[in-house]
Design a protein that fits this description.
Strand content: 15-25%
Structural class: alpha/beta
Radius of gyration: 19 Å
Strand order of the largest sheet: 3-2-1-4-5-6-11
Number of helices: 12
Bound molecules: nicotinamide-adenine-dinucleotide
Largest sheet: 7 strands, parallel
Length: 331
């Protein structure tokens, strides 16, 4: 399957918004290796996940454009002539979206519509894959959560991500601009933001662990699933390469379901040492916590043949090894 996928992107013009971020840069590494002509667009807003070190080794192999997806003029210039658009730029902090809802609205909703308008007017032949999130389901009515589950976002970020994904599906259905949506669950791996708990709790756990400090587990009994970043990248490529994905929304998922406490223990085991403390949820987090969550990814398995390949323990081991070597670039 991989050989086939490689052929689909070799020599193709591919743009990745959010391309200096965690998942976007992993996509860039893979696409550059396939011989695609890659353009990465990223605003490098300081508090977000973009980091030039994420594309270390790709110098001269990808084009980098430091632009904001809210800038219509840049986006019009950059999107013209592209074969594929991986649309990953986003404000990803749930708490930030509550404190500054309008910035989240601008990036995750308004800018998404303007990107689609650029495609409609100047590049209707482009194929788009949009990165959405399982957060939009809210507190699950049943588990595992499939794509038919009611959407009940618990924060501003979730509402805007729903709008973002629905605009993509609308433009697919009304204008024939081939677009599809992946609803990502917790994605982990090298290059994730670990500076603080803004984006993901696992990031700060890893940082504190490697600095020899105890980390906090809030609650601990909540169940979660995790996708290794290379598996997520594979899903983006499969979705881009297949017309069977057009107009569709797919959950991604993980190879297992695990409580946060068990995850903390596995992390410490893989690291051969470390400590954690169980703490109650801080009130502002409790309000937007969704309890147990894990997703059903049958749809993408049957439509595109995707399933997670990297087991959680291996994912943690590769991630810790990466930060063991590169911690100074991420703190
Ligand atoms: N990592 C996860 O667990 C996860 C889970 C669900 C959904 N997602 C989605 O996947 C996408 C990528 O997430 P990630 O984990 O790689 O996060 P990330 O923060 O590492 O990457 C996002 C990138 O977008 C860039 N960006 C933000 N606003 C921008 C703007 N206005 N203009 C241009 N660039 C901008 C940031 O600088 C950053 O490099 C996001 O859309 C996110 O909502 C991620």
């Amino acid at each position: 399957m991989n050989t086939n996928i490689d052929d689909q992107f070799c020599g193709k013009r591919v743009i990745v918004t959010g391309g200096l971020g965690f998942i976007g840069s992993a996509l860039a590494q893979r696409l550059a290796g396939m011989g695609a002509q890659v353009t990465l667009v990223d605003s490098l807003i300081r508090e977000y996940g973009g980091n030039l070190f994420n594309i270390e080794g790709l110098e001269g192999k990808v084009r980098v454009n430091i632009s904001d997806v809210r800038d219509d003029h840049s986006m019009r210039y950059l999107i013209q002539g592209q074969d594929f658009l991986f649309n990953l730029a986003g404000q990803t902090s749930h708490t930030d979206s509550m404190q500054d809802p309008f910035t989240d609205l601008e990036i995750n909703c308004y800018a998404q519509l303007s990107i689609l308008e650029v495609c409609r007017k100047y590049n209707p032949a482009v194929k788009i894959v949009f990165a959405s999130t399982r957060q939009i389901y809210g507190k699950p009515d049943y588990l595992p959560v499939d794509e038919k589950h009611l959407l009940r976002p618990v924060d501003v970020n979730g509402v805007n991500k729903v709008a973002g994904e629905q605009f993509h599906i609308l433009y697919n259905n009304v204008y024939g601009i081939r677009a599809c949506v992946l609803r990502l669950t917790n994605t982990i791996g090298p290059r994730m933001r670990i500076k603080d708990a803004r984006q993901t709790f696992l990031g700060i756990w890893i940082r504190l662990l490697l600095e020899g400090k105890p980390f906090e587990v809030w609650g601990g009994e909540q169940l979660r699933d995790f996708t290794y970043v290379e598996d997520a990248v594979e899903a983006f490529l499969l979705a881009a390469a297949s017309d069977a994905a057009n107009g569709r929304i797919f959950n991604l998922g993980g190879d297992c379901v695990i409580s946060l406490k068990a995850l903390a223990e596995m992390l410490i085991e893989v690291n051969s040492g470390g400590h954690y403390d169980i703490r109650p949820f801080p009130p502002e987090r409790k309000q937007i916590d969704i309890g147990d969550f894990y997703s059903d990814f049958t749809q993408i398995s049957s439509a595109l043949g995707w399933k997670p390949k990297v087991a959680l323990r291996e994912a943690l081991s590769r991630t810790l090894a990466f930060y063991g070597r590169n911690l100074k670039h991420y703190v």
